[in-house]
C-alpha cells in the first residue's frame, strides 16, 4: 500500500542537493521518510506549517524555508499532509 | 528601515516580541508579530543534527504572490514582506514560479542579497 509513497519519497531524495525528506499527516505522525532525516522531525515540521498558515488563513499554505549556511529545510503543506525536505548545497 | 523596490511591509521586533518599528501592510500588526515569534521559537526545535540550535539565520515564508522574510540580528527580529513578480525579480527581488522548490533554488542568490541587506 505504501509502495507509491516510498517511490515518491525516493524520487524526491534523488534530486540534486537533497539530503532527506519525509511526509507527515495532520497529527504530525511520520508517514514515510527517505535519506538522512530524523523521522521525529515530522512533528516540528507539521507545527511550523500550521503556524505559518495562521498568517494568512485564507490563502493556500505557503512554502517555508529555513536557511542555515549551505543547508535548507523546506516545508510545504498540501491538504492533509505536509512534506519536509532537507537540502544541503555543496557550493555556497 | 531601508526599502526594497518590491517591499510592501516590514516589522522590527525585540527578541521578546515587542514591536519596535513597523510599516506598510505590517504596520502595528501585532497579530502577525506574535505568529512570527512562535514560528521562530519552533525553529529552535529543528533537528539538532541537521541545523544546530539557533543556527537558523533566515526564514522565508513564500506565498504565491508575496513572501515574508525573517532575519535575526543583534537581538532584533527583522521581517520584510515582499511582493513576488517577474518585473521585480529583474530588479533583484523575489521571482515567482509555479514550482516552489525550483523557485527556492533559482532565487537563492537574490534571497542571499536580501538577507545581507537586511543585516546592514
From TrEMBL, chain A:
- Could you list this entry's UniProt keywords, alphabetically sorted: Cytoplasm, Lysosome
Molecular function GO terms recorded: guanyl-nucleotide exchange factor activity
What InterPro entries does its record include?
LAMTOR5
* Record localization: Cytoplasm; Lysosome
**Major subcellular location class:** cytoplasm
Q: Which residues form a coiled coil?
A: none
Record GO cellular component, one term: Ragulator complex
Q: Which family does this protein fall into?
A: Belongs to the LAMTOR5 family.
Could you identify this protein by its name? Late endosomal/lysosomal adaptor and MAPK and MTOR activator 5
Report the source organism: Musca domestica (House fly)
TrEMBL record, chain B:
The gene behind this protein is 101901511
What the record says about family reads: Belongs to the LAMTOR4 family.
List, alphabetically, the GO terms of the cellular component aspect: lysosome; Ragulator complex
Gene Ontology MF annotations? guanyl-nucleotide exchange factor activity
Signal peptide, first to last residue: none
Record the organism. Answer: Musca domestica (House fly)
Q: Which UniProt keywords apply?
A: Lysosome
The domain of life is Eukaryota
> What's this protein's name?
Late endosomal/lysosomal adaptor and MAPK and MTOR activator 4
Q: Where in the cell is it found?
A: Lysosome
- Example of a GO biological process term: cellular response to amino acid stimulus
Amino acid at each position: 500500500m505504501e509502495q507509491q509513497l516510498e517511490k515518491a519519497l525516493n524520487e524526491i531524495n534523488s534530486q540534486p542537493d537533497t539530503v532527506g525528506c519525509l511526509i507527515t499527516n495532520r497529527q504530525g505522525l511520520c508517514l514515510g521518510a527517505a535519506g538522512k532525516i530524523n523521522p521525529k522531525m515530522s512533528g516540528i515540521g507539521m507545527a511550523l506549517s500550521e503556524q505559518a498558515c495562521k498568517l494568512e488563513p485564507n490563502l493556500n499554505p505557503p512554502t517555508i524555508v529555513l536557511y542555515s549556511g549551505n543547508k535548507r529545510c523546506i516545508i510545504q503543506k498540501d491538504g492533509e499532509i505536509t512534506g519536509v525536505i532537507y537540502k544541503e548545497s555543496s557550493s555556497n | 528601515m531601508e526599502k526594497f523596490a518590491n517591499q510592501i511591509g516590514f516589522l522590527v521586533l525585540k527578541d521578546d516580541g515587542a514591536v519596535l518599528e513597523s510599516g506598510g501592510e505590517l504596520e502595528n500588526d501585532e497579530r502577525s508579530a506574535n505568529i512570527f515569534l512562535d514560528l521562530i521559537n519552533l525553529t529552535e526545535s529543528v533537528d539538532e543534527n541537521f541545523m544546530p540550535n539557533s543556527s537558523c539565520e533566515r526564514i522565508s515564508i513564500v506565498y504565491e504572490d508575496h513572501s515574508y522574510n525573517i532575519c535575526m540580528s543583534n537581538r532584533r527580529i527583522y521581517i520584510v514582506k515582499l511582493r513576488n513578480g517577474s518585473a521585480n525579480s529583474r530588479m533583484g527581488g523575489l521571482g515567482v514560479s509555479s514550482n516552489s522548490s525550483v523557485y527556492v533554488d533559482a532565487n537563492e542568490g537574490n534571497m542571499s542579497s536580501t538577507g545581507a541587506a537586511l543585516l546592514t
